[in-house]
Specification:
Helix 3 (49-56) crosses helix 4. The protein contains eight helices and seven strands. It has 198 residues and is α/β, with parallel strands linked by helices. It is globular, with a radius of gyration of 16 Å. It has helices at residues 18-31, 38-44, 49-56, 62-82, 90-99, 112-121, 147-156, 170-179; strands at residues 5-8, 103-107, 123-124, 127-128, 132-134, 163-167, 182-185. The chain has a five-stranded parallel beta sheet, sandwiched between helices. Strands 3-4 form a two-stranded antiparallel sheet.
Length: 198
Amino acid sequence: MNGKGVIFDMDGVLVNSYQAHYESWKIMAAAHGVNVTEQMFREQFGRTSREIVKAWWGHVSEQEMHQWDQEKEDAYRKLILADFPAMDGAEDLLKDLHKAGFKLAIGSSGPPENVEVVRQCLREEGADLFDAAVTGFEVHEGKPHPEVFLKAAGKLGLQPQQCCVVEDAPVGVEAARRAGTAVVAILGTVPREKLAKA
């Protein structure tokens, strides 16, 4: 297990997706006659959409939860494909790390289709910069559980201690700490004091 790896959370780290996620929640909720406020959304940011649907509308059936989840994610992908909002500096950082020999992975709570859209949009001359990805559908426990980052390190062929996680959400920082990786936090989604453990 030689080498070093960097595992990137996706939303708010590689893609400036806050607004697109919020808008897609509002689109889906409005279609079902319910409302989502920005405060509601902010408090859940970083969790899987399945977990969020359950937290907000636990009274709906499993089938409805799945349908609402699909509708929300479809709306999100349409929004980011229409105008891909890469985080400032993300593409340059990925290219520099790749050239320097770091193994790169995505460790996201999002569905595989979302991760694939981001991988397609963040290519260098058509080549995928990422060696691995773990999506929300590959984990049983969402952040702050460390499962997503442990699996990402494993896919890179590295121990967690050989990896650094880049995160923007408190639940992600905690997940990285529990996984045993180094963790760097990006400001923007939440105030600095909420990321103080990075």
